[in-house]
Amino acid sequence: QFRNKRDAERLSRLEEEEKNLIETTQRKFFAEVLDAVREFQLQIQMSQKRRKQRNDGVQAWHGRQKQRATRAEKLRIMALK
Predict the structure, then answer these.
(1) Cα separation, 15 vs 1, whole angstroms
(2) Per-residue pLDDT for the chain (81 aa), expressed as one digit of tens each?
(3) Based on the number of CB atoms within 10 Å of its own CB, is 41 exposed (0-12), middle (13-18) or buried (19 or more)?
(4) What is the three-state SS of the chain?
(5) Coil, strand, or helix at residue 1?
(6) What DSSP string describes 49-60?
(7) Whether pTM exceeds 0.85
(8) Which residue, 55, 33, 52, 54, is CA-closest to 44?
């Protein structure tokens, strides 16, 4: 009987350790998944930010070109007067 009790305790301890190991493994896995998702979201945000900066730069350049053309046109009109 003493031996059976000791075996039962050992078995329950092993089962508990196995359960803890499984939980730890699951936690690690989900933490890695979460980190990967966060990293991916950051990459997307950075890519969107770069695209916006580039588009803003292109639009500003076109705006300056248009201003130059308008200014040149005004100067031509003034020269004709």
Answers:
(1) 21
(2) 567 888 889 989 999 999 999 999 999 999 999 999 999 999 999 999 999 999 999 999 999 999 999 999 999 999 988
(3) exposed
(4) CHHHHHHHHHHHHHHHHHHHHHHHHHHHHHHHHHHHHHHHHHHHHHHHHHHHHHHHHHHHHHHHHHHHHHHHHHHHHHHHC
(5) coil
(6) HHHHHHHHHHHH
(7) no
(8) 52
